[in-house]
Amino acid sequence: MESMKDNTPDPTSPASNSLANNVFRDLSASLVVFLVALPLCLGIALASGAPLFSGIVAGIVGGIVVGALSGSHTSVSGPAAGLTAVVAAQIANLGAFDALLLAVVIGGVIQIGLGIAKAGALSAFFPSSVIKGLLAAIGVILILKQLPHLLGHDNDPEGEMSFSQPDHENTFSEIATIFQGEVHFGAAVVGFSSLALMVLWARMKVLKNSGIPAPLVVVLVGVAFQFMLSRFGSGWSIDTSHLVQIPIAKSLSEFGSFLTFPDFSQWANPAVYVAGVTIAMVASLETLLNLEAADKLDPRRRNSPGSRELWAQGVGNMVAGFIGGIPVTSVVVRSSVNINAGAASKLSAILHGVLLLVCVGLFPVYLNMVPLAALAAILIYTGSKLASPKLFSDMWKQGRYQFAPFIITVVAIIFSDLLIGILIGLAVSVLFILNSNLRRPIRRVVEPHIDGDVVHVELANQVSFLNRAALDTMFNQAKPGSKMLLDASESDYIDPDVLSLIREFKEETGPTRGVSVRLRGFRDKYALPDETQFADFSPGAVQDRLTPTQVLEILAEGNKRFHTDRRISRGYGRPIDTTAGGQSPLAAVLNCIDSRVPAELVFDLGVCDIFSVRVAGNVIGTNSLGSLEYAATVAGAKLILVMGHTRCGAVASSVNLLEAQKDADQDNGRPHLHAIVSEIQESVEGDECRGVATMQPAAKDDFVDRIAKKNVERTVREIVTRSHAIRSAVDAGDLIVVGAMYDVKTGVVSFLTADTVSTSPT
């Protein structure tokens, strides 16, 4: 996608933002879009079975009327290849082109209504994989469809974008006939020269920065080649079948005869209204998709208002229908050419419509000198930007849920047409969304507990009917005797069908199967009140039944949830209310005051689950030891955990002071730090820290981490040695004192007691 910006001036530079520069860029881009749009307008009209001039009228209206009313800065409107089948079918059904024009007017009225009703908001639901698939498919089709024109082989209209062509060939069979010798050498010379010039212009800095659009030069060179080759005989001379062919009026009255007006006598014909609705729906869908695609190509990433675009397209179709034009939509081919040519604003789209009006009316003879091969080169180069290998590579890296809808959209559009391919892509994308919701629609976390594991089910912000199947599957898989907590704290909306399923499982199905269900966070209007939870805090009964080893395992499991980003969403209101009369924490944790190591979060615990004693360097002193004695011998905690951590600032400072043979008071005038520093320095042996100041940063970090670990081990020993009460509880088997190290880079806690729990609980 980035490659679309290759020929575009930097939109953030001051020069790019000047009014004069923007006008010049819009004018030059409009010339390029005009030259590309001209044969496309004729080709689409021919492929639709409509008069040739109706395509020109649609192009003029799409440029001037829609361009002026649109809120898009880059989108270009006109007759669309995606509507050729619809228009052709409706002309056949209604029996006359003038009846179709009335249907176009009706379709425009409907589109205006859709715009007023803000239907453009639907574009927000188009998956990005489908939009990118549309862009890539258009790029591939441009290359495949324009290759025969590049070689002067295909005389079919350039606007034909469907797989099946009017000459009963298809995209690939048409290319295959090239190898049977049906190549026009003169057109091929123009085509390959033009393509080489486009590539050269993009790669040579002096040309790229000249401000002259390469496509305009290509057209002028193509016209010059056409005149030169005409002197080399019929084998090289480019005849009219390989040139732009605009109807030429000999007088103003004859020019007016090209226009067709709607047959208002058909106003009572129901088929006309059916055709109008069909045109409105298809044109609106195609417009919104192409608008999203154009916004993704815009270097400035500006957003186009979808509802305003529908309103603008409706006005455009009403005008087109009144004066004999086929339906218009936003067109990604012209929009991509517009962006690639450096357009700065919607002035480019308007000017391209003005150029169509003026040149077709006044200078058709000169326009009919432009070789189709030159225009094919421009479109092929644009196609190579849309379908860049990088886009396919990026989509592949995003995984199958993005790549599969993307590539299916690409293939479907190539082998059918734009409308059918898009619908297939959208359908596939919806299937993947449904599958994704079935597999992972909710967050499910299992929390070990003395009374049995508790399955925490956290509902999403918006719980739609798409989540019903996944919830039903999860309910059916719940084992007898299990506990389930449904948490709707983050849910703003829950579908009534889902509420009914939850209510039935909680009140009837769950109890029948032996599954205990509790609820939390449901809005009052759902009449599903909160209940006492399973494991939001540690009541006294739970504390009494747990062994010290089981408490350690609970902490290990909590840390595993923390560092794998699967923390449980806990409600704090009820634990606060319930524990107001007392507390029964499972453990006491002595850890550093470092802001990166909050114990409750590190072990994914709730209110009242642990005592937290924090002191710099996690050292033991009179006050901290007294706190631990209270936690273990009075409040009944089963575990004392001393937790140090890597990259500890207190340890590093203590090591630096020891090497410099200073104490805290001498170094910085803060004597109260001495008690902490002296405790940490007890873990350093002799001259162990000599040369620390000259160590490389990585080596110094490793050394500090080793001292931090030794400090934890020493603190564990000192707690048991200094406190008779704690030592007695340990000897009785009612308490264990364990050390641990927290890695600030990974979030993993490594326990230093190998006989009770894994040293790396991952």
Number of discrete helical segments:
32
> Biggest sheet, strands in spatial order?
10-9-11-12-13
Strand segment count: 13
Q: Low-confidence parts, pLDDT < 50 over ≥5 residues?
A: 1-5, 7-16, 754-762
End-to-end C-alpha gap:
40 Å
Oligomer state of the chains in this structure: single chain
> Overall pLDDT, averaged?
83
Largest sheet: 5 strands, mixed
- Tell me the β content: 5-15%
Protein name: C4-dicarboxylic acid transporter DauA
Family: Belongs to the beta-class carbonic anhydrase family.
Transmembrane segments: 27-45, 52-71, 91-117, 124-144, 183-202, 214-233, 271-289, 310-329, 349-382, 403-434
GO molecular function: carbonate dehydratase activity; zinc ion binding
